[in-house]
Task: inverse folding
């Protein structure tokens, strides 16, 4: 059985991407994977909100989209976002944007400290069906790390708490020249 789109039968399932409940009757995406606990070759399904799947699991999303029997809201936009995620392999790692709560984090791109209260992009890795936090990057490091600046739509989706007035500041940070990589002293 392949990946699928279907209407949620109840409101009990939680999205693997954002962790929020998928409402009953809402179209959802199911990523079918081999069940590691079934010696008979069974499968399991990881459920996602449709936009979460497009942003975080683009390969599976695009594989299932042509056969989708359920209506997909914003289908063309989500198709384009998933294609971006396939083209730029690190883009599906980028999720939320927020101000740094401390100055202890180090940027995964330039290896420099991310100052307290500066904007940063949170990264996640998909490990064994779970999205695991994997650090942060400076806004200005988005281009060298993600290989694209077409990240605002996904940041807006995963960061609903960011005020509209703050998005101009975020856009300016994304457009800033990238930071030079930190000299680690090793050759």
Result:
């Amino acid at each position: 059985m392949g990946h699928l789109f279907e209407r949620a039968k109840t409101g009990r399932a939680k999205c693997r991407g954002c962790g929020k409940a998928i409402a009953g009757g809402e179209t959802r995406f199911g990523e079918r994977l081999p069940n590691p606990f079934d010696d008979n070759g069974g499968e399991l399904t990881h459920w996602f909100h449709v936009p979460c799947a497009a942003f975080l699991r683009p390969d599976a999303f695009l594989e299932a989209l042509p056969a989708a029997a359920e209506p997909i809201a914003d289908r063309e936009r989500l198709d384009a976002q998933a294609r971006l995620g396939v083209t730029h392999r690190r883009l599906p790692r980028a999720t939320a944007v927020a101000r740094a709560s401390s100055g202890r984090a180090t940027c995964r791109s330039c290896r420099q400290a991310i100052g307290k209260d500066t904007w940063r992009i949170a990264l996640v890795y998909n490990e064994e069906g779970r999205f695991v936090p994997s650090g942060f990057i400076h806004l200005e490091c988005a281009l060298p790390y993600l290989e694209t600046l077409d990240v605002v739509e996904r940041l807006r989706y995963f960061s609903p708490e960011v005020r509209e007035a703050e998005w101009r500041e975020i856009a300016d940070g994304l457009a800033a020249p990238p930071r030079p990589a930190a000299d680690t002293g090793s050759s």
About this structure: The mean pLDDT is 93. Residues 4-87 form a domain with the first zn-finger domain of poly(adp-ribose) polymerase-1 fold (CATH 3.30.1740.10).
